Task: structure prediction
Amino acid sequence: MSIASVDVIVTSPGRNFVTLKVTTSDGVVGWGDATLNGRELSVASYLSDHLASMLIGRDEDRIEDTWQYLYRGAYWRRGPVTMAAIAAVDMALWDIKAKKAGMPLYQLLGGASRDGVRVYAHASGTDFAALSNAITGYRELGFTAVRVQTGVPGLGQIYGVSSTGPGVRYDYEPAKRSGDRPSEETWDTRQYLNHMPGVFAQIREEFGTDLRILHDGHHRMTPIEAARFAKDIEPYDLFWLEDATPGEDQTALRLIRQHSTTPLAIGEVFNTVYDYQTLITERLIDYVRSAVTHTGGITAMKKLLDFAAIYGIRSGIHGPTDISPIGMAAALHLDLAIHNFGIQEYMPHNEQTLEVFQTSFTFDKGFLHPGDQPGLGVELDEEAAGTFEYAKAYLPVNRLLDGTVHDW
Ligand code: GCO
Ligand code: MG
Result:
C-alpha cells in the first residue's frame, strides 16, 4: 500500500483554513490541519508545490521516517510554514494508521490516561461588568477554567477582548478581513499594569477560589515588567500567566522565575522542541503552549511533551479558532493519552466551520472527549468547503501611544 494522492483544500467558513487530504492506494483518507493564521497560502503552496510529489508512492505506515524525510530532507530547518506543512502530513498519516487499525488515535498513543480533557474558555469584556457576565455564562455551561482578558481604561480595542459585546460563545476572532493590510491597535503597558491586578482581585471576590483563572500577556511586557506583574498577581492564584514576554527570548523567563511563583505558560509561536530547550531543562516554565498544527504534528508533539514530563512540566495545547477542528482533534487525542496533561484551550468553532468539518468531540461539564471513531474523528465535507472562498485576513498590528510598533 502507498500514498496515491495528496490534495490541499483552502476554505473560509467564516475564517480561513488550510487542510491536507492524503489518500492511499486502497482508498483510506487521512486529514491534516495546515492553517497558519494570516499566512495561510504560504503553507498551501509549500504543501502543493513542494511536498505533494515527494509523498506520492511512499508507504503511508512509515510515519517517523516520513517526518524525518521532510524535516531533515528540506535542509532548511524549522519555521512556522515548514513545520505547519510537516504537521499536516503527520496528522494525516496518523489518521490513516488509526483508521486502518479501526481505533481512535488515542488508543495508538497508549490509550486514555483520563476520562476527559479539562478545557478553558475565553471570557472577555470591555469592562468588569461585561467580563463578569461572560465568566458567569461559561460557568453555567459547566466550564471550570476561564482565560480572562479585559479592556484597559484609556485604550481602545485590545487583544483578546470581544468587540461584539459580552457574548459567551464565538466571541473572539483575532484575524480580520481588513483589505490589503492589517488593522492596528493601540497599547500602553503602564496602564495595563496599573489596571489588571485589580481585575483579578475582583474576580476572586466575586467567583471564589475554585475557578481556574488564566491570563494571556501576549508577549507585551519587558522581562522586568513581567517579573513585577507576576509577583503582584500572586495573591490571586492564577492557573497560568501566558506569553508574558516575547516568545523568542527564552532567557527572559529566568528573570520572571527569580521573582515569582505565578505559573508560566509559553510556546504558541514556537515550532520545534529546540525553542523549549532552555525553558524545559532550566524549569523556567510550567506549561507547554505549542499547537499540534504549528509544531510538526503528533509525532513531534509527543516527543516534546515526553521531554517536558521529565521536568514536571505539563501540557496546555494551543486551541484557538485558527486551529481547525482537525488540529483540535489531534490535540484532544494527545491530551487524553499523555500522563503530563495540564489543560486544553477551547474556543468553539462557528456553525459554518462545523458544517465543513464534521467532528465527533463531545463536551460535558467543562471536559472534552475526542470520541471513539477510528482515526482523528473529523471528516471534511469537500462540497461544503468549496462553497466558502478564501478571503485574505490579517492578525492586527499593535502600536504604543506614540506610534512605535509593539508586540501584538
Ligand atoms: C491564544 C492565542 C491566540 C492567538 C491566535 C493567533 O492564546 O489563544 O494568543 O488568540 O493570538 O491564535 O493566530
Ligand atoms: Mg496566547
Remarks:
- Residues 216, 242-243, 268 surround magnesium ion (ligand 2) (CB under 6 Å).
- The first helix runs from residue 40 to 55.
- The radius of gyration is 21 Å.
- The chain has two domains: 3-104, 108-373.
